[in-house]
Write a structure and sequence with these properties.
This protein has 228 residues and is α+β, with helices and mostly antiparallel strands. The chain has helices at residues 13-66, 126-142; strands at residues 77-79, 83-89, 98-107, 113-119, 151-157, 160-167, 170-173, 197-204, 212-219. The radius of gyration is 31 Å and the shape is elongated. The chain starts with 12 loop residues before the first helix and ends in a 9-residue tail after the last strand.
Length: 228
Amino acid sequence: MTMQKKKTHGFTLIELLVAIAVMALLSLVSWRGLDSMSRATTQNQLRADAVLTLQATLAQWGADLDAVASIAQTRPIDWDGRVLRLTRRGSDPTAPSIQVVAWTLRPDADGNVRWQRWQSQPFSTRGDWQQAWNLAAAWAQTGGAPSGGDTALALMPASSWQLFYFRENTWAPASSLPNTPANPANPAGPVVNMPDGVRLVLTLPPGDGLSGTLTRDWVRPTVGAPRS
């Protein structure tokens, strides 16, 4: 009896090339999917970080306006088209004091334009107020490093900003507020009144985080009328 060997068949060259091509295609599709997921995760994280920064910045903005103090022979608020200066109560309730804060738009140390905030150290005399008021204007003009107990912080990217005051039942571009008539019964009283509302229009630059125009209205706490 003759033994017949069983013939085995392997893959042909064409079959191997087809298999390799299919695996390469699957690898390419998988890599693109992973890359898209990675990009989406990065963009979502950048957006989440931008939202948190924006929320914290606007919370500080509202807190500064809520704490504005009207003091005799001082100005509670002043806007010159580039920098906003405020006279506000100190943040420590156990030690009553006054501070000057300033908001402006200027480049940071890396050359990126950001909305920035400056804050003076607490004080209690009118002479100290005048000095802090002048330092705030100088900081916005030159961007010099804060001195003493003054602090400055670059908060968030922005390309432009505008302010409007709500006075006499209408919104109008912010400008210097007029002095109020002297009160003979209270000669040491405030000479400048806060507007009933302040509208912030902030333009955010395009990028991976937030972009577009943001409008935020603030109403003086003592004003009972609803926002316009």
